[in-house]
Amino acid sequence: MSAVARLWWTYFTLFPIQRWIGVIAAASLLFALLFPGPFTFFVLLVPVVIFLFTTVSLIGFLLRRLSSPRTHRFLPHFRSKMLAGLLSTIVTVLLPWFIVWIIAPAQAVPSGWGFAFPVAIVSTVVLGTFVMAGSMVRGLLILPALFVVDRVPVVVPALFADAGVQLPLTIGVLCAATWLAFGIWYWRVPRIAPADWLRPNSRLQHFDSLFDKREALTRDKAGGVYLTGRFPKRTLYRLLPAAIVVPSGFAIGNFWADPLPTPALLLGVPILLLFMNIILANRIARRARLLWLKRGHSRADSFLESERETQRMYFWNAIVTALWLSGLAYPELQWHALLWAFAFCLTGGAFACYLGLMHTRGFKPLDVAAIGALTVSVGVAVAAMFLETLPLNTALAVLAFHIAGAWGCRAVSRRRWEQIDWLVFRPLRLPFQGMRERS
Amino acid sequence: MTQPLVNVRELAKSFGAKSVLNGISAAAQAGDIIGVLGKNGAGKTTLLEVLLGLSPPSSGSAEILGENSLQLSEAVKAQIGFVPQQDELVDLLTGTQQLKVTAAFYRRWDRELVDRLSAEWQIPLTRRIQTLSVGERQKLSLLLALGHQPLLLVLDEPVASLDPIARRGFIRQILDVADSGNRTVLFSSHIVSDLERVANKVWIIKDGALAWQGDLDALKESVVRLHIRARKELPAALAVPHQMSSRIDGRHATVAVTHWRHEQTASLAADLDADLEVENLGLEDIFVELHR
Q1: Chain A residues touching residue B52 (CB < 8 angstroms)
Q2: What are the boundaries of each domain within chain A?
Q3: Are B167 and B239 part of one and the same domain?
Q4: Residue B1 lies in a domain
Q5: What is the least distance, in Å, from the CA of A219 to any CA of chain B?
Q6: Single residue among B164, B196, B214 that ends a domain in this structure
Q7: Which residues of B13-22 are buried (b: 16+ CB within 10 A; e: fewer)?
Q8: What's the CA gap between A377 and A397, in Å, rounded?
Q9: Residue-range definition of the domain harbouring residue B282
Q10: What is the least distance, in Å, from the CA of B72 to any CA of chain A?
Q11: Do B21 and B114 fall into the same domain?
Q12: Does the beta-carbon distance from B93 to A231 stay under 8 Å?
């Protein structure tokens, strides 16, 4: 296999989760082609979209990881092959969108947008994550740009049309210029800094430490420190982000004249939380190893302690997210919207968290089945996002599905934890030398 | 005879089709300082982690203070100090916070010892752990394992990242720990010279089994290298009992043997019609000969 083909393959298959989603996406695509139907076709395409979305999200990060080792500079034509691999991956990711836009009979936006919009989004995400992987602060500055690009097709076209500017063409040219500039920079830069986005920022850490609890630690609190990796904080520390996030939801809801339909907000947005919850719960599960010799717990007790910590996390996240979403959906607090949002966040979060706690032995058939079930749930949620109102039976079915999934994953988790092997399932190691503060 | 502090019976561990430990049986008494030796991937870490109950064995059993490793009580766990190969510190905490958090788990915490050692080892406790060097992290991990004065100290490659001064300090500390009370230290290391200075017993793992377990002095007395200078051509295979390895070149041969008794020298020289020189080996040479 040539170096460029190998890089292309690596971008799509480096992580096990990518490979499994890829398998599900391929099966789903085949099924959709064999049994076509408008709704089925749409739902079955969701895994493909998730697969492409996952890949796009990882490209920038992987590009930095693969580019930064000094030893790679001695590989023949390394930089040119990296750029060729990157280009071929991005073209592959964009190809389905172009095809859909070409064959779609009725288009909601002018045809130029069918090309310009995906290119702009993919370019922003890839370059944004590339920068973010090198510096979190610089990366965070890119996020507003991402948001602006996302909203451009909805908000700005009329303004540009009045000025007689061909916006899709302009965006296309801008993207091409950006990639050209990046390519030249990538080709010439002496060294690309490694991914050290967790490098401590002394000012932020000083601010963070102001909220550390001063009183003596109990054993339970100390256990929590090992599981979460954070020193106990005062209550204000947890309330502070919520105090910013929740009003921002209502502020945007008031400002935003053309919000997404309510089902999209209440059912669709919590999807984004699911993946985060899986990762966080799995991180807690891995860290349970650190407590084995410090507490008198059995393995079953270790599971219960990790479960409690996970519940605290997703319960609080569900409250904050539900308040934020109900604010986005309605300018004033609507209890029914809040309750639905809370129910979706809570049950979906529980399903995802138990999936994270369950995943202790690599990808076994049960893990794949659970990920498949979660993908189906995401598919239903994405399909419902395009409805004007949320049908009650669909909403209840999604909730029931989440609860059943959480219950099933919990049962499997408990059984697996009886024989958990912490020699294999251990906290993920970060390259801490690369995280040392710059003097 | 008193009950062994650590008792391993027919311990086997496999990862899928790959067998790492094959029926290891060993015991450690109170006061033993045992060095665990083996090549990379020999199964040292696996042995130590199975022994501590972090990993369930495929078969056999491991006991600490008479309790099955997989069901250790709180009282027994409080008697164990463990420094894993890769430290398990909480990156976002400062050194002082990490000490506080760990101390919260134990009823007995020797603050005086911890303060003395942290000053002696120059650990910057006010800094976040993620900003510490590998050596500083390792020293902090050692402090955390020593603070509650455990009866059993298990150290997996504890000195690999330390500078020579810190290594000497650490070795002195191990000797102090072992001397003060009936403490047992079980540690693996690639730095054989350190191990030789501290350990009174060794477990050498080869091909998933214990190639040697017992007193270090007995091992050093028992394993020798014979330099043979014969008067006529030597055969391709020499009939030397308990042979570990041999190199034969015409009338000269070098043979490493175990279970050697010095009374054998004269009779073997006569049998081979050769001059025989016996070389006593250090632990590093013994280790190399065992793996030839």
Answers
A1: 292-293
A2: 3-188, 203-433
A3: no
A4: no
A5: 5
A6: B214
A7: beeeeeebbb
A8: 10
A9: 223-290
A10: 7
A11: yes
A12: yes
